[in-house]
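Task 17 of the worksheet. Students: predict the tertiary structure of the chain below and write it out as structure tokens. Keep your answer in the requested format; marks are given for formatting as well as content.
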Amino acid sequence: MSSKADILKKIKQNQPALITDLPDLNVLGSENFNVLETYKTVLKNIGGDPVEVADYAEIIQYIKANYNLDKRLITTIPELSEIASLDWTNDDVHSLQDVELTIVKAHFGVAENSALWVTDDVLGQRVSPFIAQYLAIIVYKKDLIATMHQAYEKIGNQEYGFGTFIAGPSKTADIEQSLVLGAHGARGLIVFLLD
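Model answer:
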């Protein structure tokens, strides 16, 4: 018998029982912690900025105070039409290269990694959060959940053409462990946490 055959024979003889119970993943996220505060802390740690707001008027005031309204701002949210264009979703994607700020809503956010779930029905165009210089995403505080396991349970049976989790501005690190934010996508992310 060759050494290869001998090794394979020993592996077959030492197989674990095929019937094993899967772990109960429902215990993950069952810890009692403040989901909102955890979300904000994690977002800050990865380079994003959480901003708590009561309504769309506060979002408009924040954007007026912090962004140049003479530059191109786009949104899919009718309540923000005062400061951003709604008429862009059928444009050629290449024409979005000059967008300064994209503002969209998220379906929900995840506290453990500050990820926000967005799909094509809220993005307008798939490229919109990735091509803009800056990105603002609005999520209701009530729609924050604790873990990615809960997130996958939530999206498991949904139908969508495109969906992605977005967490923080784009970033990369070189071999010297120097972190660069905004390396290949949005240079900054504001998350408006709406009451």
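Marker's comment: The mean pLDDT is 87. The chain has one domain: 33-194.
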